[in-house]
Amino acid sequence: MKKYTAFYPFILLIIISSAMYLSFSDFAMIQKDKLRFIAHDKHYIMNHTQIGDSLEIELDWNNIRPSIGKKIYDDGECTIVIDDFQDDLNGGYKVFFRAQGSFNYQGGHLVTTLSRDSAIPDGFLQAKIGNDITINNAKFYMRGQQSDSQGDTFAYSIFPLTCYEYGSLIVDEQIKHNQNKVYIQLIGLQKFEWTRAS
Hints:
198 residues, alpha+beta, 13 strands
């Protein structure tokens, strides 16, 4: 009987060592892959909250570049910034957004327009000129990589070629009449939270 009881501490040591190794291994992966690891690891449970308010951003259509880097959302855990503009050579722009979340060993947070559930639609962007003219033609241009190391990158095309099917002067004159101000709205923001299962 004594020879079997000598194995119990050894087995207990193996169990504790294995648990410590797995915990350290997860910790190391979180440091390396950040939100990407948390979003895809089976040890984390995802919860989803729809954020009701839309984000409205005013752009000077004659001088759009200074808006790059502008923080348009910040809740203390998650941010969204305007990452870049690209001229689409058709009178419009592609506007890129960068959503960054926060994370630690216990879980993570991310606010984005990109869904992680096929039952939940992606958010969208809407362009407005003045208070009365809404142009519902802003189209999804790039979905970006879901949950890269720190968040999402996504882009929309505003005033693309389809907007000019009745002649480019229609939109151009509307923008000039509104002192070159264009408003874009991000609609359908979603907050994703991951919590480590006990």
